Amino acid sequence: MSVAFTAPNRTNRIPFQPTLHMNPQSLRLVRRALLAFGASSVVLLAALPSRAAQPTAARPAKEVQLLNVSYDPTREFYQDYNALFAKHWKAKTGDDVVVQQSHGGSGKQARSVIDGLEADIVTLALAYDIDAIADKAKLLPVEWQKRLPQNSAPYTSTIVFLVRKGNPKGIKDWGDLVKEGVEVITPNPKTSGGARWNYLAAWGWALKQHAGDEAKARGFVKELFQHVPVLDSGARGATMTFAQRGLGDVFLAWENEAYLALTEFGADKLEIVVPSLSILAEPPVTVVDKVAERHGTREVAQAYLEFLYTKEAQELIAKHHYRPRDVEVAKAHAKEFANVALFSIDEVFGGWRKAQKTHFDDGGVFDQIYTQAAAK
Amino acid sequence: MPPDAVVSRDLLALQRAAYASARTEKPWVRRTLIGLALTFVALLVLAPLAIVFLFAFEKGRDVYFAALTDPVAWSAIRLTLFTAAVCVPINTAFGVAAAWAITKFDFRGKSLLITLIDLPFAVSPVIAGLIFVLLFGLQGWLGPWLVEHGVKVIFAPAGIVLATMFVTFPFVARELVPLMQAQGAEEEQAAMMLGASGWKTFWRVTLPNVKWGLLYGVILCNARAMGEFGAVSVVSGHVRGLTNTMTLHVEILYNEYDTAGAFAVASLLTLLALVTLVLKSLIESRHLKPLKAKLAREARGDDA
């Protein structure tokens, strides 16, 4: 029911023109209300936390803020590393550096940076996600990966299997994943970096198994994804699905994430199985040039990444179950990592750009086999 | 259930009818039905609520308070309160204006306005968030211009406020429109005939008539503003200490295997929601009391 504010007789219309008929008292009220509204919005705008306010250079100890946009399983590592670097930077320059963190599936994080998340540094799961930032948003040069040693990857990792205690399904190698009744947990290769390494590791194993037969490798990976009941968007979500919610028989995990799950959920509940062959995962790091220049943080951002290669940082890397690059540190911690044969993405797939285009872009091999797998 | 006069009156009539029919049922039927309803409520509402607090205190009081006083948690709490403090007044002002325009006047495009007000209810919060990414993102329409001028909207508190405002936009208007429609415009017409200005009519006649409905709308709007997850998650960028609201902070803590911390923050959100609900029932009872009295008088025939 709607009541119009007009009398039925048009000639007898009640005049309704508030501005014309307004008495001085209500005018004052309107003015006061407008003033109050204006004043409150100014106060609110001023209260908005802003990173634009840079401290002046003249002050002896300035505070520098960095934003490190990273992928899912590095949460614990960078929390420790940020403290270590802050101490180092304070000793070196006298400045305080506060590193803000953002974590999520690697692809999703790259998407956010492309859409304007102001990362001074990105530390993602794989090179292609940084390539995407260079290609789509032009925030850094295409040749970014040559700027730091060892493909800009200060630590490496690999893909292992996490199974329930006692390995009830008897999973030993990639071939066992497609056995009758085995459920496999992996995140979505579209959004998660770890999942793309999982996928390529499986492909690489099958390729070797079938003497380089691409069709057979494709058949194996397709069959593998028929055993996947749910795709989480990031590695951490998938860990929760497997360890907390108890879904699936085997979880294809980053080596470091698998060790972390053992500590968090107990070695009496889960165990790690190392396959015969896996992939050398190189999670790269780089400065996002345009953002760092705008923030005036280029120097500290660069130092933040270079410090990752020092002995001190490499020790921390090993402690968090990433494989250190430093030869001596790696040797000292050799016993903590399974001795598994690793192949690199360049050897088998001709680099990330090519692998991404063939397998993970829209309409690529993953889309084709996953829709087929889902249709079954 | 909106507390407008007509619906409340129907409700009371229904209640009376229900009581009457309940008395005609056999006692065991009544008891079974009541038991079923209570079990259902206990399983679906009370148990999860209890679990939130149980898990929050799982590792003791110290861990609980440490999780709440952590600087990152504190910044999430502040951001949530700030967002609500901006969204609720603005949406209230808008809601009142829209409801007043819709119910007291006829104008072209009125049905379009009503539809537009409902839009945020119909659109999924994720889409709501993406709209703002497409608009203000670096690859979006306004993004490059904003960056050039050093204005940060997306992945900043401003974006979170905008997304929340979009999602909570309809609550006040939706609450007021049926109420004001039911009340009609007679009293305003009378006030104007007696020479009151439009502004005075609004303050002296319209607003007092709808104040309980308005408060109810404000409370619902506030509850949603503090609890929103989907839209905020899309525009946040998840920078801890800067762009995480309480709901996002709960997710992060949970994903970091910090169950006690996650549930501690969740329990604070739950407490805020409980306070809101208590306020709501207080307002409802105050709103219904005069109505009940009036109905009782009518039933006795005094009012005629």
Task: Write the topology of this structure.
The complex is a heterodimer of chains A (376) and B (304).
Chain A: H1 24-47, E1 63-71, H2 75-93, E2 96-104, H3 106-114, E3 121-123, H4 127-137, H5 149-152, E4 155-156, E5 159-164, E6 184-185, H6 193-209, H7 214-225, H8 235-244, E7 250-254, H9 255-265, E8 270-273, E9 277-279, E10 285-287, H10 289-295, H11 298-306, H12 311-319, E11 323-324, H13 327-332, E12 341-343, H14 345-349, H15 352-360, H16 365-375
Parallel strand pairs in A: 1-2, 1-3, 6-7, 9-12
Antiparallel strand pairs in A: 3-10, 4-11, 5-7, 5-8
Helix pairs in contact in A: 3-4, 6-7, 7-16, 8-9
Chain B: H1 5-24, H2 27-56, H3 61-69, H4 71-104, H5 110-122, H6 125-136, H7 143-148, H8 157-168, H9 170-183, H10 186-193, H11 198-227, H12 230-236, H13 246-255, H14 259-300
Helix pairs in contact in B: 1-14, 2-14, 3-14, 4-8, 4-9, 4-11, 4-13, 6-8, 6-12, 8-11, 8-12, 9-11, 10-11, 11-14, 13-14
What does this structure look like?
The complex is a heterodimer of chains A (376) and B (304). Chain A is an alpha/beta fold and 376 residues long. The N terminus of chain A is likely disordered. In chain A, strand 1, helix 2 and strand 2 form a beta-alpha-beta unit. Chain A is built from 16 helices and twelve strands. The interface between A and B is large, with 47 and 48 residues.
